[in-house]
Amino acid sequence: MVHPAIPTALLALSIPVGLAALAGPSTPATAQLVIHERITVRVPRIPTAAAISRPAPVASRWKEKKGPSCIDIGEVAGAVIAVPASVDLLLDDGRWMRARLDGDCRSADFYAGLYIRPGPDGRLCADRDVIRVRSGAKCAIDAFKLLVARR
How far apart are CA 149 and CA 151, in angstroms? Predict the structure, then answer.
């Protein structure tokens, strides 16, 4: 959040002193100030399954079901690498969501966590957004799959 006094101070600094004196009190001076924000969310890798209430996904114990096309970025609590070419995301409500990555991405690159830059709507969407690693590489998300326990 930008402090309310900062734009006013920047506006006052942008008017040259000589111009303000020449303009006099009857001529208002105008200026434009544009502030851009960029938000990047770091999702930590979950180190052990014992640290969370639900066990981490293992390919043989979980079944993939159709998932949503987008998830709210605020719901993502952590990430686990369980199978190649995907990253499993733990959501705040305890559900697991598998983000299937683009064909040429390796999930092993996400050993130290991942970075997400959400879209303007604050959501992470398949076929639109990418996830990034610390090295700067990025992988497109092909689809989200909901993980449910096998019976």
Answer: 6
52 near 90, Cβ under 8 Å? Answer: yes
Report d(CA 40, CA 58) in Å as an integer: 28
Dist CA 96 CA 136 (whole Å): 26
pLDDT digits (tens, 9 = 90+) for 20-74: 455 555 666 777 777 766 666 667 666 544 444 555 555 568 899 999 999 998 8
Burial of 41 (0-12, 13-18, 19+ CB in 10 A): middle
3-state secondary structure of 45: strand
H/E element, 10: helix 5-14
User: Can you give the pTM of this predicted structure?
Assistant: 0.63
Spell out a b/e string for 5-18, using b for 16 or more CB atoms within 10 Å of the CB, else e: eeeeeeeeeeeeee
Q: In the chain, how many H helices and how many E strands?
A: 2, 10
Name which residue leads in pLDDT, 8 or 60: 60
